[in-house]
Amino acid sequence: MSTIFEVRSLKRAFGGLAVTNDVSLAMAPGDRVALIGPNGAGKTTFVNLVTGNLTPDSGDVLIGGESVTRIDATGRVRRGLVRSFQVTRLFQEMTSAEHVALAVLQRDGRAGRMFGHFLAMPEVMAEVAGLLGKLGLSELMHRRVSEIAYGQQRLLEIAVALALKPRVLLLDEPAAGVPQSDTGRIEQALADLPADLAVLMIEHDMDLVFRFAKRVIVLAAGTIIFDGSPLDVTRDARVREAYLGSYANAGHAA
Amino acid sequence: MTMATMNDALAGAQGKGRKRGRDLAGLAVILGLAVLGYLLFPNNLALLTRMTAIALLVLSLDLVTGYCGVATLGHAALFGSGAYASGIAAVHFGITDPLLMLACGILGGAVAGLVCGIVILRAHGLPQLVLSIALIHLFHEFANKASAWTGGSDGLAGIAPDPLLGYFEFDLWGRTAYVLGIILLAVVFALLRLIVRSPFGMLCRGVKEDPIRIRAMGASPKLALMKMYVISGAVAGAGGTLNAISTQVVGLDSLSFTLSAESLVMLVLGGTGSLFGALTGTIVFMFFEDIVSAANPFHWLTMVGALLIAVVLFAPKGLYGTVAGLAARRRGAGR
């Protein structure tokens, strides 16, 4: 099995506190992995280390066998490591088509072009229409983000990520903040992700995790305490302790 | 394709057609106003040419402030650098062909844009504003001290441009300079319309709204802003050169904080983030200034201040931005 994405003993401390402590994992194309963990487990720091927004104290991040530890965030995106955001970060004044077109143009190295308009570029528009169609957003193609519903914005976020043709996709709580009635469409979009794409999803919603992931990784206090099938995760003693422990503490605080 | 998507596709195509129509309308308005100005104020062409030069400065400021969200109160550094570059080329190096002077000015402005961009883009928000103020004072002081080249506080005099294309003399009434200015403005306007609508323009709008999102798409916000700063410098440099050619002198005021602040006021007055807004602001401000200062030489600044307060309070999108917004709403309601 070939490895497309690998993290080797990643460490990062803030002050004296090791927030990411010796984390290692490897993923192959087509993997569907969920990363879960109680609050404060270090999930956000892990994402920032992997995407290049934070530098690790030690350890390595590899994409397709190439070490990207010393490559900045934009370079990692160009090598195929793409992320979505927990809270949508879209451009309020731009249309859905503009978002996807910008991603397509950027991927092809044409986002710096100073002439022409993407509406007049048939190959770009074909891709834009295809992606928006696949996510059921065709009707909103020329609507501004400020005019579309939050659930649809989350779908657009996925469309933008896919337009970058990632090899590894990091989904940061793709269903966060979406009303119950719309989660079905998000789940459908996740099920329709390209088969050869390696997906690492950070998620709180356990139902979604169990339906989506073939493999679950549990992070607690900066280290991986479980890496295995969704069936085994609920039976694992350390996982239960990590979650129950945090609930117990929360109970005391309240 | 469903009915709705077809409608939307049509809407997109119509939007494109409408934009192209607006481009041509914009050029027609510029040329129409130019002819009108020429007919109404044949003895005041110097003011109109100055207005054209300042319009180039305000357009240039709009590129970085309106389209990219960079806060600057030092944009005259680019304008003045262009003016001095063409002036020095003419006085010290004998490059007196107006088009070659223009090339020197554009290059000088672009280099100044690069320098200012490198410094200003290191910070954001308030520190960025302070850096820009520091820069304009540094440029001003440098030009003041390098008096062997710049004439210092006396100004750089003795700029005597050759006839334009070897045929059109720069006459006492300023007709040639005026026509050169209008052609320059029309060409720059057309080029900028192209740039702000291009993929690069879209990228810059993205940078203005959320640089982190742009980075997550694999593009460097800083690189985009640097490019825009250099373009902005070229445009401001063209404006500076036009002023140098038409007045045949370059003064320290072209590198002043006052001019920088005034250009920002004009931009806000007209409306940021729109090329039409930049032009509207320049025309309204400079005409207002001219008329009011003639009518009441003592209190004209008070009235300019009152106008600005009124616009910022009651039309925060600027004069053009507010009118365009109202027109769009009426179109939307009529549908």
From TrEMBL, chain A:
Transmembrane segments: none
Superkingdom assignment: Bacteria
Assigned keywords, A-Z: ATP-binding, Nucleotide-binding, Transport
Segments forming domain ABC transporter: 5-246
Entry's Gene Ontology molecular function annotations: ATP binding; ATP hydrolysis activity
Keyword Transport appears in the UniProt entry: yes
PANTHER family, per the entry: ABC TRANSPORTER ATP-BINDING PROTEIN, CONSERVED COMPONENT OF ABC TRANSPORTER FOR NATURAL AMINO ACIDS-RELATED
Name of protein: ABC transporter ATP-binding protein
Species the sequence originates in: Sinorhizobium glycinis
